[in-house]
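Reminder to self: keep the SMILES exactly as supplied, no canonicalising. Ligand is S-adenosylmethionine.
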Amino acid sequence: MTDAGHPGRVSYPPGFFDRADPADDTRFYGPPRLVQHIDDDAIAAVGAFYDEVGVGGAVLDLMSSWVSHLRTRPRHLTVLGLNAAELDANPMADERVVQDLNADPVLPFADASFDTALCTVSIDYLVRPVAVCAEVGRVLRPGGTFALTFSNRCFPTKAIRGWLAADDEGRAAIVARYLREAGVFDEPVAQRRPSRGDPVIAVRATRR
Ligand SMILES: C[S@@+](CC[C@H](N)C(=O)[O-])C[C@H]1O[C@@H](n2cnc3c(N)ncnc32)[C@H](O)[C@@H]1O
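C-alpha cells returned for the bound complex:
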C-alpha cells in the first residue's frame, strides 16, 4: 500500500496511530506523576547514552517530566511536556513549556535554536510523530543530535497500536522510519544499550 501524499512511500498499516484511549491527552496526563517510568538499571543506561551523545549546550527535552536523565547539567535546558507540576519539579530545567504535541506538533522555538534534543520513553504516545520529528529537525542546528530512548514499558491505553504490536527491534525500526521521513536527518543509528533491568533501546540521528 502506498501513501497518497507521498507516491512510492509505503504507508503505515490502517489503525497504526490509533489508541485505545483517543481522548484529549491533557485529561490522562492531568494528575502529576512524579515517578520513574523505568527501573534504576535502565535509568543508568539512558544517562550513559546521553553522556555518550555529549548532551550539552542548549538542550530540548521533549515529552519531559520531573527528570531529564542527564548526569551533567547542560548550559540551558528547555523541557516540554503536558504536565506543569511535573515540569516545575524538574531541577535542571531553565525553561518550561506545556504543550500537547498531538494537538499541535509545531514547536514554539526558533529555527536552529538547540544543540541537542531528547525524547525519553515517550515517542510511542505521538499520533503525528513524523511532523514532530520534522519540527525537532527545524529547531536543531545543523550537526545537532536528536537522541531518543525507549523501553518495553508504557501507558498502553495511550500508546499507538503500531507500537504495542511491535517488539524492541520493530520499535527501533519505527523510530528510525519516523526520523527518515522527517527528511532532515542523516541515517538514524539504533542500538540496544546494556541494562540488566528494563531493556533500553536508543536511536540517534544528526541534523543535516
Ligand atoms: C512515560 S512519561 C516520560 C516522562 C519523561 N520523559 C521521563 O523519562 O521520565 C510520558 C511523558 O510524555 C508526556 N506526553 C504524553 N503525551 C504528550 C503529548 N501529547 N504532548 C506532549 N507531551 C506528552 C507526558 O507529559 C509524560 O510526562
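Points to follow up:
The pocket of S-adenosylmethionine is lined by residues 25, 29, 37, 63-65, 67, 69, 81-83, 86, 99-102, 120-122, 125 (CB under 6 Å).
The CA atoms of residues 65 and 86 lie 5 Å apart.
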